[in-house]
Write a structure and sequence with these properties.
The protein has 347 residues and is an alpha+beta fold. The protein has 14 helices and 8 strands. Strands 1, 2, 3, 4, 5, 6, 7 and 8 form an 8-stranded mixed beta sheet that branches. A hairpin with a 2-residue loop joins strand 1 and strand 2. Helix 2 runs antiparallel to helix 8. The protein is elongated, with a radius of gyration of 24 Å. Bound molecules: iron/sulfur cluster. The site of iron/sulfur cluster has 15 residues, from helix 9 and helix 12.
């Protein structure tokens, strides 16, 4: 076994953090934790993981869950397609594999929402298959260990990292090795101020020897961020509010928000537009200050106009009227969650 591999395994055994999904090699638990941890840090992810396990103790429970219940538990993590895929993948496991997770990397890749990273994590940890994982922590550790300046956001950087991991991963403990590299990246080989003096592979690390640790890893360039402006109409009728289900394909599919107005109008224009859209006389009660939300490729800003309707409004496509008190039970994007107090304060 390579010295680097041996040192990493010994270090991991002594230093690994106690995390709930590390208590078993149940592929269902590993899969849930990996999907959740792609979205958030370990401390916040742990709470989500425990809630999911408690609500859906087995893959059968998740497979038969309502999509809305899954989205609600996922709320706040973003990338809601991942939550929808969780449920669909659970259904595939139940229907195509009799409720047993497939035991190979290649078969795991056939599950909805399971990409190379997740398949490698499950295959290596639950089934001892020596396939390397590659995530942000692994990119950083390998770039520094090998003093590689190949950009990690380009195919050549990914290929190089995979090859290095392949040459290091042992057949005896592939799961522990993958977790050791990721753990080292998370707690020692950090993006800023890596703790090289307490690193088990310092003697093998080429970046440390050349004093270039903080220059690595290299990235070629960032994705362009585009702006999206939204004007939401919160239409209140008695103690009810109009909501919209996002049925179209996209990052918010299956979540709820509110009907939209066009962006060009001033406040009087908005009132007239709303009266014509919902076919009732309205009063404009309030215009909110702007809410903003940043996604990886998009900066969203949203203004909210609160209207009281004199009569039950006409419902545009995908809209429905619900009790105001039920608003917080719906799965909503993070941006919309921020604006819910505006409506709840009207109760
Ligand atoms: Fe990272 Fe420093 Fe360890 Fe190299 S010696 S792997 S830079 S923590």
């Amino acid at each position: 076994m390579e010295k680097t591999t041996e040192n990493l395994l010994i270090w991991y055994e002594k230093n690994k953090r106690n995390l709930p999904w590390r208590e078993s090699i149940n592929p269902y638990h590993i899969w849930l934790s990996e999907i959740i941890l792609q979205q958030t840090r370990v401390d916040q992810g742990t709470a989500y993981y425990l809630r999911f396990i408690s609500a859906f103790p087995t893959v059968f429970d998740l497979a038969k869950a309502d999509e809305e219940a899954v989205l609600k538990l996922w709320q706040g993590l973003g990338y809601y397609s991942r939550a929808r895929n969780l449920r669909l993948a659970a259904q595939m496991v139940v229907e195509n594999f009799n409720g047993q997770f497939p035991a190979s990397y290649e078969q795991l890749l056939t599950l909805k929402g399971v990409g190379p990273y997740t398949a490698a994590a499950i295959a290596s940890i639950a089934f001892n298959e020596p396939v390397p994982v590659v995530d942000g922590n692994v990119f950083r550790v390998i770039s520094r260990l090998m003093a590689s300046e190949l950009p990690i956001d380009r195919p050549a950087g990914l290929k190089f990292t995979r090859e290095q991991m392949h040459s290091l991963i042992p057949t005896s403990e592939p799961g522990n090795f993958n977790q050791a590299v990721m753990e080292l990246g998370a707690v020692v080989c950090k993006p800023v101020n890596p703790d090289c003096n307490n690193c088990p592979i310092q003697a093998q690390c080429l970046a440390h020897a050349s004093k270039i640790t903080t220059n690595l890893p290299v990235k070629a360039g960032k994705q362009k961020v585009t702006a999206l402006n939204i004007r939401y109409a919160m239409v209140i009728f008695k103690d009810q509010i109009m909501v919209r289900l996002r049925s179209e394909k996209g990052i918010w599919q299956g979540l709820y928000d509110f009907p939209e107005l066009t962006f060009e109008q001033d406040e009087i224009g908005c009132l007239h537009e709303a009266e014509s859209l919902f076919a009732t006389k309205m009063t404009l009660v309030k215009r909110s200050s702007t809410f903003t939300h940043l996604l990886s490729h998009r900066r969203i800003s949203a203004d909210v106009f609160i209207f009281y309707a004199e009569q039950l409004p006409i419902l545009p496509k995908d809209c429905q009227v619900i009790a105001l008190s039920a608003l917080t039970t719906l799965p909503v994007p993070r941006l919309v969650e921020k604006m819910l107090p505006l409506a709840m304060n009207l109760l």
